[in-house]
Design the sequence.
């Protein structure tokens, strides 16, 4: 995924609404999170939340236990500033998801839009899955959004891995029950379209 400095430079050199992954609201993610976790006290982790407005929308809907992880401190600082006093209602984490440790904290929903597909190394993907197993409650949900089979082969100058539902499910393996899948088109600020695959799993005991 490159270094924190690489991603800090991306966020500092471009407007928040000029990066290819920008959307004013992550409608599909928000809908699925509300479907999977209607309880507003449920713990939700947004992986690679960066400058995304998902945290704003979850707060406005009354969710009380939110955590955002991003490799870029610049992106986290931007979002904290945008939220103002509401930033105190969120737990902020800066770090590489393949090396991060949430300690004893466990989540009801793990949400990742556009991080996992940057993990081109099998060992990094395994480290990611190991963290999911440790950080998601038994019976909790994992909501993943990656580039689909017809999605871009590169993003932000980096190679990515494109997934269909079976390949993505296979990366997580035993104990992750596939509950649903769908394709969605993301329309970038540059006027192009990107195919995303959404899959959601339950982590069984």
Sequence:
């Amino acid at each position: 995924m490159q270094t924190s400095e690489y991603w800090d430079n991306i966020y500092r050199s471009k407007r928040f609404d000029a990066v290819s992954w920008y959307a004013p609201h992550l409608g599909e993610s928000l809908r699925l999170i509300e479907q999977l976790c209607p309880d507003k006290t449920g713990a939700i982790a947004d992986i690679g939340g960066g400058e995304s407005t998902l945290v704003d929308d979850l707060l406005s809907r009354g969710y009380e236990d939110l955590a955002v992880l991003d490799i870029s401190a610049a992106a986290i600082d931007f979002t904290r500033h945008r939220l103002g006093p509401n930033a105190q209602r969120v737990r902020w984490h800066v770090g590489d998801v393949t090396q991060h440790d949430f300690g004893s904290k466990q989540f009801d929903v793990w949400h990742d839009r556009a991080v996992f597909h940057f993990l081109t190394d099998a060992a990094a993907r395994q480290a990611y899955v190991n963290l999911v197993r440790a950080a998601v409650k038994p019976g909790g949900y994992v909501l993943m959004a990656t580039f689909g089979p017809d999605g871009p082969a590169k993003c932000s100058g980096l190679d990515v891995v494109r997934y269909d539902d079976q390949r993505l499910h296979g990366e997580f393996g035993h104990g992750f029950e596939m509950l649903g899948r769908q394709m969605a088109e993301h329309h970038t600020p540059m006027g192009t379209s990107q195919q995303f695959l959404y899959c959601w799993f339950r982590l069984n005991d």
